[in-house]
Specification:
By secondary structure, the protein is mainly alpha-helical. The longest helix has 54 residues. 46% of the residues are buried.
Length: 545
C-alpha cells in the first residue's frame, strides 16, 4: 500500500515540474504588461503590450489546464504497461466525463443546486476543462477519473477478443468500458460534488484563520514527510487544487500578479493564502548552513573532496529548490538531523510570515524570481528585502545547530566516515571505480562487486557514463529478474523488487555513483541526483521495457 501511495506522490509531481518554465514566462509577461511598473510603453493597445500579451497567453497553458495535466500524469506512475496508451485513454475518458457532467447540469442543474449559466470561477463552483463548462473538481476529480481508467487499463488492455472483434482490442476496449463507467461517475459527481464544494469553502476559512500557526504546522509536516515520499500528497491539494483558494495557490497567485503588482497593500493582507508555500526558504537559506556544517566538521584531509560534492548540491537547492541530494545524504547517516531540519524549516517559514514576506516561495531562487521578485519588485521590493536578514540569520542558526549536533553525537556525516569507507563519489571517482571494477573483472572477478545472488549485467562497448551507472545499479538491485518495476521521481529511482535480500547495501550504491539507497521491504529508493531521468530511461532499456 505504501508503495502505491509513493508512486501516486511521484505522479503528482510530474505536472509541477512544468512550473519552472511556465512561471518564468508568466512572471516576465506580467512584468512587461503592467503599466504601473513599465510605464506608458506597457499601456494596453501598444505594440509592446500586445506582443508580450501573446507570450503571456502561452505561459498560462500549464495553469489553465492543470486538471488535464494531472489526468494524464497519473498513468505515468501507476499504469503497469503501455503507459503512453494509458495516458491517451485517461485523457479521452476524462473529457468524456466532463461532457457528461455538462449535459447533466444543462438538463437538471437547478434541481441539483447548480446554475450552469453562471460565470466560471469564484463561488459558482464551475470551471472550463478543455473548453468544457463543468463542475470545478480540480485535481481531485482529474485524479479520481484517471485512477478509474488506470485500473481498467491494467486489467483489460491485454484482453483477448474474438478475431472478428480485433479492431476493438487494446486501448479501444479500455475506452469502451471507461465510456460506460463515466456515465455513473458523472451522475455521482453532479449530485455529490456541489455539497463537497460547500464543505471546502468552510475548510478554506479554517485554514485562513490559522494564520502563522498554520504555516508553521504545514511546513514542518511537508519536510517531515519527505523520507516517506508522501510530501506531495500533503501540499498538492493546497498548491494545485481548491483546498485554500479556488484553482490552487499557484494558479491563483499567477492570475493575481497584475493586481498585486499594481497595489501597494501588503502582500500578507492582499494574498494571505499564499503563505503556505513558504517551504522554499529552507532550500535557499537552510541548506547552505547544513553544507557549511558538513564541511567544517569533516576531516581536514577529506574537505577538498567533500567540497566538490557540496557546492553543486547546494547550488541545486538554492537555485532550483531540489534538496533531496543533500537531505537524503544526512537522512541516511543521521536521521535525527532530518527531524531537526524539519523543525528549523518550520521556524524559518514562521519568521518570514511574521515579518510579512508572503508569496509563492516553495521552490528555489529561479522560481521565486519568476513568481515574486521580478514581477513585484517595483511595488513590493521592500517587503522582500526583509527576507534577506531573516534568511541569513537562519543560515547561521542551521550552521551552529548542525555543527553542535554532529560533534556532540559524533554523527558520521560526509567526510567523517571511518577510514577506508566510501561515502559520496564525484563523477571522476565513479569512473575510476568503474575502471577498477573492469580491471578486476578481467582477472576473473567479474561479479565480485555485485550484491550476493545478483545477476550480472554485461558491459557494452562505448556505453556512456549514465548507461554504465544504470547497468551497475541494476546489478546492485539483484539483476533484471529481481526488478518488478522502476519509476523516476525528481532525484530518485523508486524500484520494486521481488527479493529484497538480493539488493546490495547503501555503500555499494554509493560506489556505483549514486548518492545512496534506502530499502523498506520490497521498495527501494536509489538517490541518483538530477540525472535520474536519463539514468532511469537507460535502466528501463536494460529491463527491456
Amino acid at each position: 500500500m505504501m508503495r502505491q501511495v509513493q508512486r501516486l506522490g511521484g505522479a503528482l509531481y510530474a505536472p509541477a515540474m512544468l512550473f519552472a518554465f511556465a512561471g518564468v514566462v508568466v512572471g516576465l509577461g506580467t512584468l512587461f504588461t503592467t503599466e504601473a511598473v513599465m510605464g506608458p510603453v506597457a499601456a494596453e493597445g501598444t505594440a509592446w503590450h500586445d506582443a508580450w500579451s501573446v507570450v503571456l497567453s502561452g505561459g498560462w497553458t500549464v495553469f489553465n489546464q492543470l486538471p488535464l495535466l494531472f489526468a494524464v500524469a497519473l498513468p505515468i506512475g501507476l499504469a503497469r504497461k503501455q503507459q503512453g496508451r494509458c495516458c491517451m485513454e485517461a485523457l479521452v475518458s476524462y473529457l468524456t466525463f466532463n461532457y457528461f457532467v455538462n449535459t447533466i447540469l444543462s438538463a437538471w442543474g437547478p434541481a441539483l443546486g447548480v446554475d450552469l449559466s453562471a460565470e466560471v470561477g469564484n463561488a459558482s463552483g464551475l470551471a472550463l476543462v478543455g473548453g468544457i463548462k463543468t463542475l470545478d473538481m480540480g485535481m481531485v476529480g482529474a485524479l479520481a477519473i484517471s485512477a478509474v481508467v488506470v485500473w481498467l487499463h491494467n486489467r483489460l488492455f491485454d484482453t483477448e477478443l474474438p478475431e472478428w472483434l480485433g479492431v476493438f482490442s487494446g486501448s479501444t476496449f479500455v475506452y469502451m468500458v471507461s465510456f460506460a463507467a463515466m456515465l455513473p461517475c458523472a451522475a455521482l459527481a453532479a449530485v455529490v460534488w456541489p455539497r463537497v464544494q460547500v464543505a471546502m469553502l468552510a475548510l478554506q476559512g479554517v485554514i485562513a484563520g490559522a494564520g502563522t500557526l498554520g504555516v508553521t504546522a504545514f511546513v514542518f509536516l511537508e519536510r517531515a514527510l519527505i523520507p516517506f515520499g508522501l510530501h506531495h500528497l500533503l501540499y498538492a491539494p493546497f498548491y494545485y487544487d481548491n483546498a485554500v483558494v479556488a484553482g490552487g495557490i499557484y494558479s491563483a497567485w499567477a492570475r493575481a500578479l497584475p493586481q498585486l503588482a499594481a497595489t501597494s497593500s501588503p502582500l500578507k493582507e492582499a494574498a494571505p493564502w499564499a503563505a503556505l508555500t513558504a517551504t522554499g526558504w529552507s532550500k535557499v537559506f537552510g541548506i547552505p548552513g547544513v553544507a557549511a556544517a558538513f564541511y567544517v566538521t569533516a576531516a581536514p584531509a577529506r574537505r577538498k573532496r567533500l567540497l566538490s560534492l557540496l557546492v553543486p548540491v547546494t547550488l541545486t537547492s538554492v537555485l532550483c529548490g531540489v534538496t533531496e541530494p543533500i537531505e537524503f545524504t544526512f537522512l541516511f547517516v543521521a536521521p535525527p538531523l532530518f527531524l531537526v531540519h524539519a523543525a528549523l524549516a518550520a521556524l524559518l517559514a514562521t519568521c518570514m510570515n511574521l515579518v510579512g514576506v508572503v508569496g509563492v516561495f516553495s521552490g528555489g531562487l529561479i522560481e521565486m524570481a519568476s513568481f515574486d521578485l521580478v514581477p513585484l519588485a517595483g511595488s513590493h521590493g521592500l517587503e522582500y528585502l526583509r527576507a534577506i536578514p531573516v534568511g541569513l540569520a537562519f543560515t547561521a542558526i542551521y550552521f551552529v545547530v548542525f555543527r553542535f549536533l554532529i560533534l556532540r553525537f559524533d554523527f558520521k556525516t560526509p567526510g567523517r566516515e571511518a577510514a577506508g569507507e566510501t561515502t559520496l563519489y564525484s563523477k571522476a571517482q565513479y569512473r575510476a571505480a568503474r575502471a577498477a571494477a573492469r580491471a578486476h573483472a578481467s582477472l576473473g572477478g567479474a561479479n565480485a562487486t555485485a550484491a550476493p545472488g545478483a545477476t550480472a549485467v554485461s558491459d557494452g562497448e562505448g556505453a556512456d557514463a549514465r548507461t554504465e551507472q544504470a547497468r551497475r545499479i541494476l546489478e546492485l538491485l539483484g539483476g533484471r529478474d529481481n526488478v518488478v518495476d522502476a519509476l523516476s521521481c525528481v532525484t530518485r529511482l523508486r524500484v520494486t523488487v521481488r527479493d529484497p535480500a538480493l539488493v546490495a547495501d547503501d555503500a555499494a550504491f554509493r560506489e556505483a555513483g549514486a548518492m545512496g539507497a534506502v530499502k523498506r521491504g520490497d521498495a527501494v529508493q536509489v538517490v541518483v541526483g538530477l540525472s535520474v531521468a536519463q539514468v532511469g530511461e537507460r535502466l528501463e532499456g536494460l529491463l527491456g521495457r
